[in-house]
Amino acid sequence: MTTAVLVLSATGCAQLTGKTQEDVIVWYMQKPTSDMSHQNMVEEAANEIIYKELGVKLKFEFVDSGAWAEKKNVLISSGEEFDIISDNGTSFVNNASKMAYVDIGEYLSKYGEDILAKVDKNAWEAVKVNGKVVGIPGQSFYVPYNSFAFKADIVKKYNIDYKDIKTIEDLEPILETIKQNEQGIYPICALANTPIPMQFSDNEVYSTVSGIMFDIENDKFISEIDSQWFLKRTKITNDFYKKGYIPADAISKTETVSEIKSGKYAIFTGRRNAEKTSSLYGFECVESDPTYGYINSANILNSVNAVSRTSKHPDKAIQVLNLIWKDRNLSNLLAYGIENVDYEVVSGKGTDDISILPKSGNEVKWSIWHNWLGPLWDQWDSTWNRTEALEEMRRLNEEASCSPILGFYPELSELKTECAAISSIQKEAASVFCTGSMPDYDAYVNTVKTKYKDAGINKVIDTMQKQYEEWKKTKAED
After folding, report:
1. What is the dihedral of CA 123, 126, 128, 133, to 10 degrees?
2. Neighbour tally for 134: CB within 10 Å
3. d(CA 450, CA 452)
4. d(CA 190, CA 151)
5. Is the dihedral of CA 103, 108, 112, 118 positive or negative?
């Protein structure tokens, strides 16, 4: 069967190259996994559906993760012709601000019926830049969460009531027990880029600008270093570091997954799903019940598909994306690959709700996460996400509160020098705060506060506040 598929794939590739560029929708995306060698056969199978429906074909251009940021810059600055790009975060906002992406509002009205019907209602605000919808947000779990994961053998050995742990303070007696009794095991994992989980603030949320938060109660922007929530969290981390619960060399460690895989940490950041956590790290884990924060722009912008300003046929680009949102078989084909080649059907064969077993490890030759394509909630049941987990994520998205600054993107081009300096300070300080590895906490806080002030953080905050007041007026008018 594989041989037959490969023959078809080669034929399909020839057919594709025989078409003019006008007939091909080119989609740039960061390479989802290291081996995507089944690309030709997957595209051939997908294009049988797409060409029949729309008269065009789809071609992915995958870029290695290390070169992705630079490739995006080159694509946009050079004016290269392409149709769709999967962007995210501040990169999406910055590129949209440069007018690199098409205002797709009119195209969605004409050709995006299924996109409009399925995209989560809270997500559209995050993809508006300068008042225009310039991207399609992929479905995902938009609610930030924290949970503590524990090595199951440690929990069993000390009879830890892990479900009842709600705050970082609840960990103290457990950490001390592990320190005193477990040789070669660190009580908790805190690394240069991985803070200890902590309950979210009810009153403060991060803005989209490095080092600056938003005080909800007082409706104003503040420096991170003036946030009471941030100071409480980092003070406790420093206390844990001094007590030896965190490795002395934690600030030099940045590879979170490999560190936890080593098995030398008793407690670490959870993934809200013990099964997935255990699978990721290679040993049995249990997790505390998660705590949740506000839906924010950063979580929604984890995956956004935009149409390039250089596209010669943005209408067809939207039609291709809409077909992916419409056709569950197509979206799962593009995500999982070919049946009996990239995955096997475990149950429900011949129905709309099958359960599958995808290839894993070195056997993976194709995979794209569903939220990178768009419709996560249409994912077939698999070890990637169980249907029950997807339904729970969707429910929480619908019930969660949104950050009051969701979709607010300040224009700070005249303050590039200040923003760059603040970002540099924040990046340097983050590793110290994440690990708590400062000898004198109060002295270090004052040093960072002075650095922020000298870099011009108050000027940036004042500018953001003024723009925020104007943005609120436009929101009220809407």
Report:
1. -30
2. 26
3. 5
4. 15
5. positive
Name beta bridge partners: 432.
Answer: none
* Angle, vertex CA 464, rays to CA 405 and CA 224, nearest 5: 75
| Mean pLDDT score across all residues of the chain | 92
In angstroms, the CA 191 to CA 398 distance is 33
Q: Which amino acid is at 185?
A: I
Q: Tell me, what's the pLDDT at 198?
A: 83
Residue 178 identity: I
In this structure, the strands spanning 265-269 and 186-188 are parallel
Which tokens in the block code for residue 195?
A: 């803070």
Cβ burial, residue 232 (10 Å; 0-12/13-18/19+): middle
CA separation for the pair 164, 151 (Å, rounded): 16
Spacing of C-alpha 291 from chain mean position? 18
In 3D space, the residue among 314, 337, 324, 311 whose CA is nearest the CA of residue 373 turns out to be: 324
Q: What gap in Å lies between CA 358 and CA 364, rounded to an integer?
A: 8
Residues in the chain with pLDDT < 50? 1-22
Please tell me the predicted confidence (pLDDT) of residue 1: 33
Q: What is the largest CA-CA distance in the chain?
A: 70
